[in-house]
Amino acid sequence: VFWRAADDKSNWPIIRQGDENILDRLFLGYVVAPPAVDTEGAMPVQAQFGERILLDAYEVPLQVTPGQPLDVTLYWEALSPPAADYTVFVHLLDEQGQIVAAHDSMPAGNRFPTRAWQPGLQVRDAHPIDLPADLAPGTYQVSVGLYLLETGERLPVRDAGGVDQPDRSLPLTTVTVNGVQ
Question: What's the pTM?
Fold first, then answer.
């Protein structure tokens, strides 16, 4: 938003209370127009991140090939409006719990920050994880979480049974990495 003088079309200065800096525009909030979300066929989760965010469901292929992307889709919902913008992490972990591939971004490809979420609104959030071409065949764990980009602090996670998750990370499922074809 900006103010313009009617007579000479010049912009009026905008000054926030207690701030000496003159602004050329003012941020008032978000306009939310998300697409409809269809979770049919997705695996239900019902895990709570912090006090305000719920992971409703996810989609993950159970078999993947090295060098190909692992497409993880998460379906989020706000229980109440989140107070901050969180970044989502999706990790692929080996049997020792080491990260072998990952994808981090704000929800919906950085297009739908969590502060814009309203209760009852579902958010489809795709995370393509680039798998290394030399990834060894085997079974790997997919885990997810939310964190503040500025500090790296993760939100606490409780699974559907109300159990707090270690490392503030939620294990979703395992995937099998096939040999190179």
Answer: 0.81
